[in-house]
Specification:
With 379 residues, the protein is α/β, with parallel strands linked by helices. Helix content is 39%, strand content 15%. Strand 2 and strand 3 form a beta hairpin. Helix 7 packs across helix 8. The protein starts with a helix and ends in a 5-residue tail after the last strand.
Amino acid sequence: MLLGDLGAEVIKVEKPGAGDDTRAWGPPFVGSESVYFLSVNRNKKSIAVDFKHPRGAQVIHELSGVCDVLMENFLPGKLSAMGLGYDELSGRNPALIYCSISGYGQSGPHNQRPGYDSIASAVSGMMHITGSEDGDPVRPGVAMTDLATGLYAHGAVLAALLQRHRTGRGAHVDCDLLSSQVSCLSHIAANFLNGGKEARRWGTAHESIVPYQGFKTKDGHVVVAAGNDQQFVKVCRVLRLPELIQQPQYSTNKLRVQNRQRLVRALAQRFLQETTADWLRRFEGSGVPVGPINSIREVFSEPQVKHNGLMQEMKHPTAGNITVPGPAVRYSSFSHNNPTPPPVIGQHTVQVLRDVLAYSDEIVGELLESGVVAQNRVC
């Protein structure tokens, strides 16, 4: 989807009939369309091909010969067994960028395990550090491991294209959920690798900075991020707790971390005395980073969210008008105007076979009649 946002022509290959598994993930649905599917499939064309059939595999083989990039998320070795692995396809197109996304990587002791976000989130340690201090491990509210892997794959494909521009040769890119999430452990991983320090759950708080967490207010929550000593002083002044500034045990961040419980208790009692809106007004212009913990409804009422174009509207062929989260990055040289809606299954099968592979009407008709490919009759 991100590559499509940048202008790539993206052809999504689905199995005839059910198509992408996420098409069935719901409710909610808009008409017969899964909102989950709609959220991440804009700017794509859909072709329905049974590539377990030799003639269907030939279609994919021929597409790989004229495309810049192939992205796949099968178990390692499965496509090779069908004659569609990197070695087989790069022989036809040496410039092909072949990006494999799996659960654990293309080799190694666990490479044949299926990859699912929740499992990789658990195995990678992400769940171990997510949740309240005295509670059980918690799955993040969205599939962060899936999303991180997609972001890594997006950057890797662009890097491989740049390398190809210099060398003329393609590459096999190996992305996996486990590696993506472990790499995102960042300083938590470094704390263990360099100091042997096991991580723990902190809720909204930060292990190494105080105060840097959410606080309950009269009617909600507000997050305060005092990243240095000057910001801590400003927090105390906004809260009208000048006595905390004078106490030596809070004079540096290191000391505030050591005396976390007493300090947080004092701050928490004060935050409970006003509403979230009151506190946001008091902190305005103070130089202290603060923000409310918004519901999703409140997120899309935020003026900055609207200004940044993070609600993208389009007309879907069966679901009608839909709105999805828009691109996160903006460019001075082009815009993300006129996105195409997520496709229905097989919406573009005939178009791709004719325009991209130059198949004759006769061959297209034979493929449709045999069930090797399918065209959606709605479009």
